[in-house]
């Protein structure tokens, strides 16, 4: 069982793809505040390793936590769930 550990997976939206083989993905977390009860939305950005440069800005992607690639990059792209459709000017 130690060899087949469950990897922690996330889903988010690509906000930047300007780096080589790396995309920045923003993950939204929605929860009710424990004391006040108000719905709180928090965001966190992760640098995700994208070996084949598949993801573009606006795409929804799945990614998982793995071994560190660098000081700040330890996430790996699983797949692109939904692509951003280009807006056509009329």
Provide tags for this entry.
five-stranded mixed beta barrel, about 90 residues, about 55% strand, OB fold (Dihydrolipoamide Acetyltransferase, E2P), about 0% helix, globular, mainly beta
Tally of discrete structural domains: 1
Radius of gyration: 16 Å
| CATH structural architecture | Beta Barrel
Count of extended strands: 5
Shape: globular
Stated plainly, the CATH topology is called OB fold (Dihydrolipoamide Acetyltransferase, E2P)
Provide the CATH top-level class.
Mainly Beta
What is the beta-strand fraction?
over 45%
Class by alpha and beta content:
mainly beta
Describe what this molecule looks like in 3D:
- By secondary structure, the chain is mostly beta strands.
- It has a single domain (9-82), classed as OB fold (Dihydrolipoamide Acetyltransferase, E2P), CATH 2.40.50.140.
- It has no helices and five strands.
- Strands 1-2-3-5-4 form a five-stranded mixed β-barrel.
- A hairpin with a 2-residue loop joins strand 1 (9-19) and strand 2.
- The radius of gyration is 16 Å and the shape is globular.
- The termini are far apart.
